[in-house]
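To whoever is covering the structure queue this week,

Two jobs came back overnight. Logging them here so there's a record in the thread.

Job A:
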Amino acid sequence: TEPEITEPESLPTEPETEPTEPEPVQTEPQPTISIDEIAEHWFEDTLFIGNSLVSGLQICSELQEPDYFCDVGMTVFNYSSKTLSDKNFSNMTLQQLLASRTYDKIFFNFGLNEAGYSASYFISKYQALVDFVKAAQPDAILILNGIMSVTPSKASQASYFTPAYLASLSAKIE
């Protein structure tokens, strides 16, 4: 047999008055800022740390405000042995640079040069770098970029360059 359906003892009643729309709030017009002004000011007090991809950004972009601690072939394994220069600093290690300035934002770009190492070793060294930077710049926002893909011909040369493997490393970075 089917269960007996019973009506609720009391039904909701209709509201006695129709709801009214709220009055629009009058606000002062906000000044407009161009994207160029945002880009110019947003990258003040910013540091980019990384490999040749960051070097390319430094050379080819119009971002002149940030500092760049980057080098071709730089990895999470060898960054501490590098002494580098930029237009804003000369012959400094990363430790010296972080001690000499305060950054609002720090971007990291690593992983492609390290892809042939074991994932756990790479991630442990990356975590050590992030911990080191965070200790030196505790108020900075840290932005860790994922690993860029390579061309299909390069990906076919080694299993550690396949899109799936690089994506898995990026997920571990995340």
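Job B:
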Amino acid sequence: GGFFTSYAYCNAVEKLLNLGIPKRAEYIRVLCMELNRIASHLLWLGTFMLDLGASSPLFYCFRDREVILSLFEELTGQRMMYNYFIFGGVRFDVSVDWLDKVNNFVSKFPSAIKDYENIITNNPIFLDRTIKKGILFKNTALQYSVTGPNLRACGLDVDFRTKLPYSVYSELDVVPAVNSRCDSYARYLVRIQELKNSL
């Protein structure tokens, strides 16, 4: 996602320069990155369901993702290439009004996740098309340098937010979503859990 790429670049330069970052800017960065993670997972979920033959979840996911993209657009002026993280912090502070809109999204989104789960998680067609399908064993995942939720769906508890904490993640209660099923269903379950965790 866009904010993660910006963070990786800024963080590398800041470490090379031994440049300190204001704590508030670090929290703003993490807030943006976790919203970005939710938006990315919604894109994955909607298109994954479409690939499996279900069109309605795509619209629900894009509906909720649109709220996040609108928040990003209001904050940065862009919907994709944000140019908001800069060396030493962020380009400008967030407003109270913007934070209120984020809080509003955070308070409403759990019911949307519940809707996704009600529609998808125990749907017999979905189960038939994902359980024991697309098996990716951890050795293969490691051999091909698979990362993120796809790696954690192979049973590997690898999340740099906890294993090699960066920014202010060490101050937050991050619980990695891990599942050892190694199949397409596991990759779905991990992302659903990460939607909850990111909130």
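Note for Job B: The longest helix spans residues 23-51.

Please reply-all if you pick these up so we don't duplicate work.
Q.
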